[in-house]
Amino acid sequence: MAVIVCGLMLCVLDSTMLNLALPQMARQWQIDPAYTLWVVNANQIASLVLLLPLAALGDRLGYKRVYLWGMLVFGLASVLAALAPSLPWLIVARALQGMGMAGALCVNGALVRQIYPRGLLGQGMALNSMVVALSTVTGPVLAAAVLTQFDWRWLFSLHLPLSLWVCWLGRKALPPPHAGRAAQAGLSWLDVGLNVLMFGAIFLALDRISHYQPGTASLAWAGLWLALGLVAGCWYVRRQKRQAQPMLPLDLLRIPVFALSMGASISAFSAQTMAFLALPFLLIETHGLSTGRAGLLISAWPVALAVVAPLVGRRIGRIPAGRLGAMGMALFASGLWALALLPIGAAVWDVAWRMALCGAGFAMFQSPNNHTIVTSAPVHRSGAASGMLGSARHTGQGLGAVCLAACFVLWPGTEGLAEQRAMWLAGGFAVLAACFSGLRHTPVAPPLPR
Length: 450
Known about the structure:
The protein is mainly alpha-helical. The chain is 76% helix and 0% strand.
């Protein structure tokens, strides 16, 4: 499990550290700061479009191989990123990093399922959630510490040695590939291409919408990308319907509890993304807090998640996952709406408890929901289920960013109205996730022997 935790921590840290370095890159290369956003976008697109193909490859070749190759590619690409002499070079290196991250993350849940006995699997999922939460809050702090003393290239300094250590230890420690039924099935390059085109085009459409400004051609480009993604998606789905073990797991989406859990995950991550992106504006611009103080208050959210997640993990299987998820999303919605009602000049504790309520609610939801997604699939389709976890997260994040952009367009100005409306809308997404969770019916395991 140490191999999986270290790899997960490295990937999450990488995705949260680089945002602070974008202004320094723009100054160093004397370019428009808007272009540096592709350093982030290239990584996200490459990861998104390869999650399902590499998950399907894991079902066929073994999760261990896909994970270790992914970490190796991630580490080697980090060296290229650190040596980048120009922005195009860095964008290509970040895309390669995203490919490696996709290999590691797409089979993460499947490997946890292989490692943990079924009765303890909830604790493994909770450990994953705790690592993600702590890495999310540590990444910006670590990046700030490095960037105050060194060049942005030093952010990649530990990636290769840690990736090589994960590969070396993983060869010995990770469970060997299972001889599942999917071992004889091959992958269609046409299906891989359609998957890449569908997810990539939809991501670019959402990106254009989220950066919409009146008087620009953003919406026209968004429409073209969206149309291309939908055409590719229709062709892709028609081909996948004829396959017994499709790359796009339509067979898993026919399982009611799996489909409901996916809907809950997309809704929850939409709410979380809207809140995370809106909170800095709400606290700094509307409430007049300093950047450091706002960051410290926001950190109460992941800290609460990290505290509550292990406690919830011990109850998975003893309390129905649907009930845990519904209660968690109800708390999450309450916290988001409490933040929307935050009075001007609120005391530190008055902000912190609202943040902590959001983190605790999300922790009550995330681990049971992930556990249900992974375990509701047949064992030989664990890779596909794990890949869908990542796809749901990316989809929710994209939807949340677009909804927040729409709030800024509909309610422009600096009085905080857009941010408040965004928090109310995020709470609505959380309620929708609670409804999805409440509709699930998952069995309760008997108590473990003492």
